[in-house]
Amino acid sequence: MTELLQATSMVFQWEVVLVVIAASLFGLFMGAIPGLTATMATALLVPVTFFMEPLPAIAAIVSATAMAIVAGDIPGALLRMPGTPASAVYADEAFLMGKRGKLGLALGINVTCSMLGGIIGVTVLALFAPRIAEFALEFTSDEYFWLALLGLSCAILVAGGDPLKGAISMLIGLAIAMVGMDSVSGQVRFTLGNYNLLAGISLLPVLIGLFAVTELLRSLPTAGRGASRGETPRREGFGGVAATTWRYKGGVARGGLLGTMIGALPGAGADIASWISYAISRKLSREPQKYGTGHPEGLVSASAANNAALSGAYIPALVFGIPGDTVTAIIIGVLTTKGITPGPDVFTEQGALVNAIFMVFVLANLLLLPLGLLAIKGAGRLLAVPTGVLYPLILMFCIVGAFSANNSMFDVWVMLGLGLVGVFLMENDFPLGPLILAFILGPIIESNFMRSILKSDGDLTAFVDRPIAMVLAGLAILVWTLIIANGIWRRPGRRLATSETAVES
Questions:
Q1: What is the pTM of this model?
Q2: How does pLDDT run across 237-248, given as a tens digit for each residue?
Q3: Which residues contact 349 (CB under 8 A, 6 or more apart)?
Q4: How far is Cα 67 from Cα 72, in angstroms, rounded to an integer?
Q5: Residue 188's beta-bridge partner residues?
Q6: What is the DSSP string of 268-294?
Q7: For residue 394, what pLDDT is reported?
Q8: CB neighbours (10 Å) of residue 446?
Q9: DSSP alpha helix (H) spans, 138-162
Q10: What DSSP state is assigned to residue 162?
Q11: 231 and 103 Cβ atoms separated by less than 8 Å
């Protein structure tokens, strides 16, 4: 109790509260601009944290990251251009809701469920951090291989429509992910002699190119003919948020818990958590046919998962000093510069600081609601700007975002090239979601497969010789079996025969 009171007094000082508010506003700005990510916002804050005490420094990064993830939903819903990777999975869903006059509802759900998911994540973090971290440390390359392969199954599940086109899109993503040097063997692949490709293709140019640039190119025929598409969120537009969130409360809880668990696995992160949560939500839904048409149920689960994953990533970071994602890697670096080494001893020697960090999480997530809704109101004014003015500005930010990935103009050309690829795929009804997810998970699958093969000396049975690996393998095989069976059932001949039988009867 003494540590709890001490933590409360540490958090509710005007310096800490002011830092939380300022960092939240900065995160809103960074996340709302396509191409500027939460990781970039965190990296830009690091020089500022050198002049702060440990708690304000951590509070700045926590607040900016949480707010940037939520702000990334705004351009996704307004212009179908997700501001962050974690927002990409449901950008289409929110955008289509906006075209139906429910933009305020879509963004209100994003903000509300992100707040609730974040609080679920903080609660789990505070109550079960050591136990969850212990479970995460049981994972070897075998388990990570099956987990990533199971996640890749979501590439087909989130595709909807034609599973074959989803599979082709997924294979394109895997092919792009294979460019560069193999992380295990050092073998150079598909670089065509270009040294810029030795390190592979970065995620940020791919994401910006396939979503933002693709949408800009598809909108060129109508650019300059008036304001941008969509509807400005009206005051009454937020009226259905509470009712919709309550209706899908199970999805909020599931997304929050799933996001925390995935976030606790080093290398996973909010983007993978939101993809997997969206796919599971679609699979368990009573109305799966509505997904991809502007259905709020997918928004609920994925929004809760991505913010919960932010909290989950701190579990291995604080308990064992193992970064769960790039943001927690920066956090560990900041703590180390302050003379604090993350690990089990932190909970005994710095108990008040740990409790204060948990309180900062809660405060930052509570601020999501008022600041997020204010940001939505302000962002709605973007739709009044003529597209001839707005689109060049967005393209400028896209170029800055792609260039900043590696300070390379080559990444800008990659972004523009993938924008053209995205236009071709979209015009031919190939979904972009499987491509992005395969690009993210491809290197994880390959590197863990190679590590397992090397340590087992080529023995494939080593992939299922541990209980957790065996369970994950069974789930992955089951999902792929269902996908193949579904594809066979949906064959044109089968559908035609079924329809003729129905007519005869």
A1: 0.67
A2: 566 788 888 888
A3: none
A4: 9
A5: 181
A6: --HHHHHHHHHHHHHHH-S-GGGTTSS
A7: 73
A8: 18
A9: 141-157
A10: -
A11: yes
